[in-house]
Amino acid sequence: MRIVFATDLSDASKTAIESRTCLECLANIGVREVHLLTVVPDNVSSGLPGMDIASDARTALAAQRDVFEDAGFEVETHVARGTPHRRINGLAERIDADMIVVGSRGESPLENRLIGGTVRNVARTAVRPLLVERIERTESGPAVKKEHLFRDTLYATDFSANAERAFDFFPQLTGATQRAYLLHVRGREQKDGSDTEADARERLDEMATELRDRMGIEVETNVRTGGVVDEILAEETRVGATTTLLGARGTSRLRRLLLGDTAETVVARGNNNVLLVPPESATPR
Length: 285
What we know:
By secondary structure, the protein is of the alpha/beta class.
């Protein structure tokens, strides 16, 4: 598996890269090749004294490259100029990456370029599966929010085609996922609709059986009613999920916009790691 790991060279990105447990999780799902990318903003001139940004970035990347190589990964480094989310997606397309990984400090949109707006833009436009790894601020400095990236995976579905595509990504997490939690959120207006809670539970049970047979893991299911994002975040807390798996940019036959704006909002509001799987028809932006 080949990934693009986007870094802004901040302490938060350094923390994400240096987490031994997170590196082991990536190795466990078959990641062998890492393309380490940082994006230099266009509005910074490299011609000014002391402002050779590209050269400084390459020097900083060398230390992060050493961490990945010491962990057994093959590594290439890339320094690009331009808009971060466009360069991240562009590299992922060019090398045919299996996944993009970015770091985020969750609800704290601080000054780092891969925090806040850039992460949301990557989430909105990603053409490859995107893993958002949460970093939190502690008294001793930045720390990984939940180290075991895929150990307890919450999958939220509205039963759309894009949600099914995200579900089909589960087997690629074999070796890292021990427990899966399958969730469907029924909007309040669906309480009296033709699609009943019993129907949803039956569909989730079928999916749970498939996962147990294919991956040999523990699987639980749940149906909640309420606001989609609020219920997903509440379920993350209830089950202690380490990563939330969602489809991106899709609409539901149940008339709920779960896998579009909702996925982006979960990334923006949540504190969990998030794995977004784009629809097959996604094109670069």
